[in-house]
Design goal:
The chain is α/β, with parallel strands linked by helices. The protein is built from 30 helices and 34 strands. It starts with a helix and ends with a helix. Belongs to the glutamate-gated ion channel (TC 1.A.10.1) family.
């Protein structure tokens, strides 16, 4: 027992001594740099990217060690291992690096391997810089020690989506390798397309691995492409590995899918393969004519390209991933230099969790944690220098700044650049550097150079065709029981005819391609079908389109696409009318009763005001009370004919009379015009004036079965559904209108204008009342994002411009029924609202004139009241004085006499003052 305690004491002392020595060594290393710093690299050596990356990484290490300003006294040593695109081998290789005290790992190139190795890097806190893992789901949140030293496919797929949107294609087919790289890349493409109202219509996944491993070769690729050839879209995005990609192009050419009409867009795998193996791919160039490809934009690579040819001996070329591999080594070198400047020490500690988990038998002692991993990671993320690929700097998402791509067009024996894409400016024919130097922002016009497409055509492919599977488009045609001039079906056949059918057939004939279709009847033939239900079936995929008199209204446009309207439409009100005879009292009809009353009232008001203003100074407005009343009436009424004989002497009276005569002039002119219309044009009268009248009454309203008018009247106008009566035929229209609302019929009918015009062509007892209260049109309906809707809209515009649309209209809808006798529905009478402004001006003038007049009278009354002595009964005398002043005759010569008297009195006063002074 005693010996055990002694041994424990000895062990404790040795451990404390080891800690002391370790701390002393650590403090010594803080002030010195190690002679050798070990980093690792793991990728597939014999791959397209790996061959280039191996040479680039080795050269980068040489350049770093030859540069005395970096690592200053420390040598960078790299150990490379091949993962052979295997996640398991990659993980084993990463664990082996830990035996040599590796502080950072360059690679891997595969996104699949990166997902696995990132877990090891997280546990051991060793930064992992991948120069080729472009999977956008490799998140820094899940893998904090994973740094992507290349561009993410998130940016590449954004570039692809902008190219698709630039050429106005709406659907694409994606062929991808079914692993983390391909699957997650296509998901990013799907999101980028959705943001631009485009979509992937079909995804074709190919299992990863070689033909010898999976038995997945030419025949399986042919099955996929044959299926794609039967689909509608002709825009194909290829996101695979080079070996599979070249095989797909070969099979596509064999199947005729590299001809006119197809669009192929390859991601940067193709440009990398061409850059690396161009001399060896001459036999494959014929399979890729017209293909668009993307390549990561690397502005600083020209000088290194020539050097790389010597390094590789001309056996393979340099691609963009080799440049990013070269810069990855320099990123680590700069970060290590900053790491040592900050006192960082390369030290490792055992992971206690391995021993605690009972894994001692696996001999994982070499798996130690890099103590300075967090500090080195921060320095890597703070990198800021110019490398071969451009500006090396990481943003807040740990992605390289200024992502950009070259857009290449494969043509002949090589390729040419047709434009560029950058995250800040979008598509452009200028390089991102030139755009930045010119300070062009993202609002500039998107443009690309002309492209030579598959089939050696320069015209932009349409991007879609009708599926080549023998299936005809099912175009629904409503079976109408009324107004068959618009669309009808021959009994016992699928043949349809009518105005709408002729417009559709003429528009289809203008398309530059054949449209295989068949008309499918819709409806029971007993009543007009519901067009809202028809539109819903199109959205559900039951029909491929619909042709007929389908109104374009809001709730329908939410679920389907319509063509350009080929006929104008809108809801109107139809009501019965009666002819109005002129009669003995026709002269009273131009004015409403209210206007007559107000006009008569103002005649009396103006006459009274003028009498008040002229009474004191004008003898023509004086006399006995009877004579003065007659004068007021005569004067006011005679102004109607401008025949008044009395002259006005006061200024205020003349102003009031001038304004009143102007009002009378306007009233006379309006009355004459209205009366002339009444006596010369046959007037038609209807108690209903429009939709506003119907809304205020409780009368029953008719509508056409299947029309959207029912829901519009209920939901938008607010008319009770119990007041609405469904009617199916023009005869039912006429019978219901003749009966009237009180006898079980309707007071009016609300329907679309084309139907109403056809109905009124042979029904002469009814007329349209009021104005059209909705604006819409008829169009052909197709599923959402259907390219046929766009092309047919162009064809309809062509029909309208060349006059064919009008000729089709005249063929089916022109009817000579009721004679046009220039009768028109009764115009609204002239109401007070049309003249209230004139009456207001006249009233204000009268008020101001009276106000000024009475102010003058009261001022004189106040002067007289002050001069009069106070005595009893002063109130009654003042009232008598006021009334006498109002009725007093005023001589215009009084002013002159007052001036003379005032002058004489002033002279007399002066004489008296002079005499007084002499006397004194």
């Amino acid at each position: 027992m005693m010996s055990v305690l002694v041994w424990n004491l000895v062990v404790t002392l040795l451990l404390n001594l080891g800690v002391f020595l370790t701390n002393g060594l650590t403090s010594h290393n803080a002030s010195t740099r190690p002679a050798v710093v070990n980093i690792g690299a793991i990728f597939t050596f014999d791959s397209t990217i790996g061959r280039v990356a191996k040479v680039a990484i080795e050269e980068a290490v040489k350049d770093v060690n030859a540069n005395s300003t970096v690592l200053r006294g420390s040598e960078l040593r790299i150990e490379m291992r091949s993962s052979n695109c295997s996640g398991f081998l990659g993980m084993v290789g990463a664990l082996q690096f830990m035996e040599s005290d590796t502080v950072a790992i360059v690679g891997p190139q595969s996104s699949v391997v990166a997902h696995i190795i990132s877990h090891v890097a997280n546990e051991l806190q060793v930064p992992l810089l991948s120069f080729a893992a472009t999977d956008p789901t490799l998140s820094n949140l899940q893998f904090p020690y994973f740094i992507r030293s290349t561009q993410s496919d998130l940016h590449q797929m954004t570039a692809v989506s902008e190219i698709i949107d630039y050429y106005t294609w709406r659907e694409v087919i994606a062929i991808y390798i079914d692993d983390d790289y391909g699957r997650n890349g296509v998901l990013a493409l799907d999101d980028a397309l959705a943001a631009r109202r485009c979509r992937i219509s079909y995804k074709a996944g190919i299992p990863p691995g070689s033909e010898s491993e999976l038995g997945y070769g030419r025949s399986e690729i042919m099955d996929i492409l044959v299926k794609i050839a039967l689909m509608e879209s002709r825009v194909i995005v290829l996101h695979v590995y080079p070996d599979i990609g070249f095989l797909i192009f070969s099979v596509a050419r064999y199947l005729g899918m590299m001809e006119d009409g197809y669009v192929w867009i390859a991601t940067d795998w193709l440009s990398s393969a061409l850059d690396s193996n161009f001399p060896n791919l001459s036999d494959k160039m014929d399979d890729m004519q017209g293909v668009l490809a993307l390549r990561q934009h690397t502005p600083g690579s020209k000088s290194f390209t020539e050097k790389f040819k010597k390094l590789s001996g001309g056996s393979f070329g340099l691609n963009s991933y080799g440049l990013y591999a070269y810069d990855s080594v320099w990123i680590i070198a700069h970060a290590l230099d900053a790491f040592f400047d900050q006192g960082g020490v390369i030290s490792f500690s055992n992971d206690s969790r391995l021993s605690n988990a009972g894994l001692a038998d696996l001999h994982l002692d070499a798996m130690s944690i890099f103590n300075g991993g967090k500090l080195l990671l921060d320095n890597i993320l703070n990198s800021d220098f110019i490398g071969l690929t451009g500006h090396i700097k990481f943003d807040s998402d740990r992605s390289l700044v200024n992502p950009a791509y070259d857009i290449l067009n494969i043509i002949g024996t090589g390729f040419r650049t047709v434009g560029y894409w950058s995250n800040s400016s979008g598509l452009s024919t200028l390089t991102p550097e030139n755009l930045d130097s010119k300070k062009v922002n993202g609002s500039h016009n998107q443009e690309l150079h002309s492209v030579i497409w598959p089939g050696e055509i320069v015209t932009k492919p349409r991007g879609w065709v009708f599926p080549n599977n023998g299936k005809l488009l099912k175009i629904a045609v409503p079976i109408r029981v009324s107004y068959k001039e618009f669309v009808s079906q021959l009994p016992g056949s699928n043949y349809s005819k009518g105005f709408c059918i002729d417009v559709f057939v003429s528009a289809v004939n203008l398309l530059p391609y054949a449209v295989p279709y068949q008309f499918v009847p819709f409806g029971n033939g007993k009543e007009n079908p519901s067009y809202t239900e028809l539109v819903r079936l199109i959205a559900a995929g039951v029909f491929d389109g619909a042709v007929g008199d389908i109104a374009i209204v809001t709730n329908r446009t939410r679920i389907v696409d319509f063509t350009q309207p080929y006929a104008a439409s809108g809801l109107v009100v139809v009501a019965p009318f009666k002819k109005m005879n002129t009669g003995a009292w026709a002269f009273l009809r131009p004015f409403s009763p209210t206007l007559w009353a107000v006009t008569a009232f103002f005649f009396l008001v103006v006459g009274t005001v003028v009498w008040i203003l002229e009474h004191r100074i004008n003898d023509e407005f004086r006399g006995t009370p009877k004579r003065q009343i007659i004068t007021i009436l005569w004067f006011s009424l005679s102004t109607l004919f401008f025949a008044h004989r009395e002259n006005t002497a006061s200024t205020l009276g003349r102003i009031v009379l001038l304004i009143w005569l102007f009002v009378v002039l306007i009233i006379n002119s309006s009355y004459t015009a209205s009366l002339t219309s009444i006596l010369t044009v046959q007037q038609l009268s209807s108690p209903i004036k429009g939709i506003d009248t119907l809304k205020k009454t409780n009368d029953r309203i008719g509508y056409q079965v299947g029309s959207f008018a029912e829901r519009y009247l209920v939901d938008e106008i607010g008319i009770s559904e119990s007041r609405l009566v469904p009617l199916g035929t023009p005869d039912a229209y006429a019978d219901a209108l003749l009966k009237g609302s009180d006898k079980g019929g309707v007071a009016a009918i609300v329907d679309e204008r084309p139907y109403v015009e056809l109905f009124l062509s042979n029904q002469c007892k009814f007329r349209v009342v009021g104005r059209e209260f909705t604006k819409s049109g008829w169009g052909f309906a197709f599923p959402r994002d259907s390219p046929l809707a766009v092309d047919l809209s162009t064809a309809i515009l062509t029909l309208s411009e060349n006059g064919d649309l009008q000729r089709i209209h005249d063929k089916w809808l022109i009817r000579s029924g009721c004679s046009t006798d220039n009768s028109e529905l009764e115009s609204d009478r002239l109401h007070l609202k049309s003249f209230w402004g004139l009456f207001l001006i006249c009233g204000i003038a009268c008020f101001i004139a009276l106000f000024i007049y009475f102010c003058q009278v009261f001022r004189r009354f106040r002067n007289i009241a002050r001069a009069a002595p106070d005595s009893g009964g002063a109130g009654s005398r003042r009232l008598q004085t006021l009334l006498s002043l109002i009725d007093e005759k005023k001589d215009p010569r009084d002013k002159k006499r007052q001036k003379v008297e005032r002058s004489i009195s002033n002279e007399s006063r002066d004489c008296e003052i002079g005499q007084d002074s002499e006397r004194r």
